[in-house]
Amino acid sequence: MSRSDSEVFLQQRQQQIISAAKNCFSRSGFHGASMADISHESGLGAGQIYRYYSSKEVIVSETIKSIAESWRMFLLKNLQLETTISNIIDTESDFWRDWSFRERCLLLEMYSEASRNKSVRALLVHEEQLLFTELEAIFKRQMPAATPEERSDRIQFLLMLVDGVACRTFGDKHLNQQELARINTLLAGYLFS
């Protein structure tokens, strides 16, 4: 096997393990899922897994990195599309279509872990800074007359709104459509003008 083939195989195995870990963690949480669960889910023996990751903590860390990066990329893609507040608020809308139930579970688990783990919190802060910088560039092109403070306020508000909706994703699915339309009208002029 050539060096490049070996690197590809390594990356495929690591991805296989992280994918299995995501399935396990979305069902049982970072602390509830065991290495045996990950081994069973991945179809690999524990010894094989330890060739690629030295401990469960490393798997958790790599999984969190993957979740955080996916979340950043999802938001970057969706927040630059023309959207409405009602699409952001409604978890069944097109805005959320590409963010699966499994990803929603993992996002909540990641935020929970960040509340008690400094390194996870630091990782999330880093990803949010990257997202903010990328959105700032997009908003600057879309809103050239706005001040940096206005753009920053809008970005912060959108991120809080999206995070709040993501965290309440398991709540009531029956939104009052009249109230949603009223909120959308109130906020649309502020956010998307």
TrEMBL record:
Gene3D superfamilies: Tetracycline Repressor, domain 2. It comes from the Bacteria. The keyword Protease does not apply. The keyword Chloroplast does not apply. Residues 11-71 form the HTH tetR-type domain. Residues 34-53 bind DNA. This is TetR/AcrR family transcriptional regulator. One of its GO terms (molecular function) is DNA binding. PANTHER family: HTH-TYPE TRANSCRIPTIONAL REGULATOR YJDC, TRANSCRIPTIONAL REGULATORY PROTEIN. The lineage of its organism: Bacteria, Pseudomonadati, Pseudomonadota, Gammaproteobacteria, Enterobacterales. Keywords: DNA-binding, Transcription, Transcription regulation. Signal peptide: none annotated. InterPro entries: Homeodomain-like_sf, HTH_TetR.
